[in-house]
Specification:
The chain has 328 residues and is mainly alpha-helical. It has one domain: ABC transporter involved in vitamin B12 uptake, BtuC (Orthogonal Bundle), CATH 1.10.3470. A two-stranded antiparallel sheet has the order 1-2. Helix 3 packs antiparallel against helix 4, helix 3 runs parallel beside helix 5 and helix 3 crosses helix 9.
Length: 328
């Protein structure tokens, strides 16, 4: 299959950046906020695709790593008044370190044992955060990245600023991730996912490669968590619940867990689900309990339907069909 060169892919990303710039001025405030949320989910889902789709390691606690990144960024801002880029860098580094430690343990685990370990991390994060006063307890910490010092016009709002930051960070991160996946590391991870015994016989160090995948995946998740904290203005246990991990996993399955090609599908779907649930609940005058639980029900239903009908994701399914027709 023909693969785009680095220059062509860079050109595509630059065009996307220009399109996003003009799009931010053409839509209302709600859509701009939702656009920032899409960028957050694109990064979070991509971190799962890197970990599960490429290295074959299953994580049910990715939301906890987002939380680690969010707290790291907020603490840098509160205690050191660090600039935005330094807060995000701290989120990546601290989350990557946490992922590296988890990866060392994960390299010795597989299947349900690994999934259970990461799930325990996601369940335990709220309790851990509540044990330390400097993390803000139940109320959490405020994360105010401020507003750009230069005047960008009276129509330039805070949410547009968030949208620009989130979109730029996501474009850079995804471009970097594509390069990593096309490198020898990506090929090694695919070999380990396919058959770890054969990969080890071929000279691939399983522990090192699995740990590296966990570290890089956690770094991406940390950046996603910092962007999420920026968008909602706070970081707290309630901002990174267990349901966030399951939502990201559902988004990865919807996207096609073995490819980045459909990552926007999963991200847009996750952002649209609460709005769809709210519209359905208001139409049928449902109770508050139904309104709160309906998004989770929709996510679960989508996950089941995707696994049943398009287990590789719609983009990969279309690509497979196209290749099948060409080879006939």
């Amino acid at each position: 299959m023909h693969k785009l060169s680095n220059k062509k892919r860079l050109g595509i990303f630059l065009l996307l950046g220009v399109a996003i710039y003009f799009l931010s001025g053409a839509v209302d405030e709600l859509r701009v906020y939702q656009g920032a949320s899409v960028a957050v989910f694109v990064l979070g889902i991509s971190s799962i695709i890197l970990l599960t789709g490429y290295s074959g390691q299953v994580s049910l606690g990715q939301g906890a790593l987002l939380g680690v990144g969010g707290y790291a960024a907020a603490l840098m801002r509160i205690h050191y008044n660090a600039p935005i880029w330094l807060c995000f860098s701290a989120a990546i580094i601290v989350a990557a370190m946490a992922g590296g430690l988890l990866g060392l343990a994960a390299a010795r685990l597989s299947g349900p044992y690994l999934a259970g370990t990461t799930l325990a991390l996601a369940v335990g994060l709220p309790s851990i955060a509540n044990q330390f006063a400097f993390l803000g307890g139940e109320q959490g910490l405020l994360f105010d990245v401020g507003f750009p010092p230069l005047s960008l016009g009276k129509d330039f709002t805070q949410y547009k600023w968030f949208f620009w930051i989130a979109s730029l960070a996501t474009l850079i991160a995804i471009f970097w991730l594509q390069n990593v996946m096309r490198s020898r590391y990506g090929r090694s991870w695919k070999a380990v996912r396919g058959n770890d015994v054969a990969a080890e016989l071929a000279g691939i160090n399983l522990t090192r490669n699995k740990t590296l995948a966990f570290t890089l995946s956690a770094g991406l998740a940390g950046l996603s968590g910092a962007l999420l904290a920026m968008t909602i203005g706070t970081v707290s246990p309630s901002a990174f619940p267990l349901s966030l991990s399951f939502s990201l996993l559902t988004g990865a399955v919807l996207s096609g867990v073995t490819t980045l090609g459909g990552v926007m599908i999963g991200a847009v779907t996750l952002v649209a689900i609460p709005e769809i649930a709210g519209a359905v609940a208001s139409r049928f005058s449902s109770s508050e309990a139904v309104t709160n639980n309906l998004p989770g029900l929709l996510v679960s239903t989508l996950l089941i339907l995707t696994v049943l009908f398009v287990p590789n994701g719609p983009v990969e399914q279309l690509r497979t069909r196209r290749e099948h027709r060409v080879n006939k």
